[in-house]
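Sample intake sheet
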Amino acid sequence: MKLTTLQYRIKDQTTGKRLVEMGYSCNYAWNYCNEVNQESWKKFGKPLSAFDLHKLTSGCAKELGLHSQTVQAVCEEYAKSCKQYKKRKLNWRSRKKSLGWIPFKGKGVKVEVDTVTYSGHRFKFWLSRSIDSKVRFGSFCQDSKGHWFVNFVIEQPEIIREKTGKEVGIDLGLKTLATLSDGIEFNRENLIKKFEKQLAMAQQARKKKRVTAIHAKIKNKRKDWNHKATAAIVNEYDKIAVGNVSSSKLKKTRMAKSVSDAGWSDFKRMLAYKAIRLGVEMNEVNESWSTVTCSSCGSRSGPHGLRHLIVRDWICSDCGTSHLRDVNAAKNILQFSVRGN
C-alpha cells in the first residue's frame, strides 16, 4: 500500500469565509510556536519538540475554533520544519502574505461522498474522482486567487505495470525543456513570454486581481504540462536518469526568465514521485561535462563556454561521430548513472 494525495476544490464561497477564519487561527498557533521556540533557545539553548509544543498549546483549540488535532498538526509541522531547515526561527504567518492552511488528521474529519465535515462545519467539494479508502490525514489549503481546496491523504494499492525493459537519460534545458537519450523531445511554448504583455499592462494599471489571475494561469499551464510529460516518461521507461541542473544558480544570470519558465524543480519532483508509484528506478546524476563529452568515445571535444551555447550540433574531432548537443548530453547522463558518476 502507498500513500496518495487527492485534491478537491471547495464549492461554496460562503464556506470559504469560515475557512479563512480558521486559517487565521492556524497562523496564530504557528506564530505562538515560533515565539516560544525562540524563548527556549535564548533561555535553554535548545529547541522545543513537538511534544513540548503539544503541552504548551493544550486546551486552546476550542477558543481558536479548531479541532484539537489540527493544533497538534500545526505544532508537529513547525517542529519538523525547524529540524529540516536547521533554523531557530521560521517565517511568521500573516493574514496578508500567507495563504490559508488548515491541517487535520483522519479522526478529525468525516467524509461523505462530496461533503467533508470538520469542527462542526460542512464543506461541499467537486468530486472529480472517487475516494476509495479511509482518509489518514490531510489539509484545507488556499491558492493565490483565494480558492479553497481540500487534500485527502489515503492508502491505495501499489500499481504494477508490465516492464518495458527501456532506460533513458534526460537532459533538461531552455531551448528544449526535456530531451531524451533516444531523441524524443518534450517542449512547450514559453509561458512567461506569452503572457508578459498582459502582465505588464495589468501591473501598470495596478490591477492586483488581474495580475494574480495571470500568474495563476501561467502556473496552472506549467503544472498541467509537467504532469502530462512526466506521466508519459514513467509509463514508457523502467530506468530514468536525469541531470542535476540547478535553477537557483541560473536564476541569478541573464537567463533568469527562461529558467523560471522552465520549472525544472517541479518537473523533477513530479517525475520522482510518479516513478516511485509505478516502481520505476530514477536517479539524479551529476551532469558536469555532459554537453562537451562525446557519448561514443568519451573525449571532451565538444563546444565549450557560454559563447558556444548557440552551437546545437557538432562532430567529435577524435572519432568523427556527429552529435545533436542535447541528445548527446542525455546519452551521457544515462551513462553516468550506470557508472555511478
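Comment: The first strand starts at residue 2 and ends at 9. Residues 2-156 form one domain.
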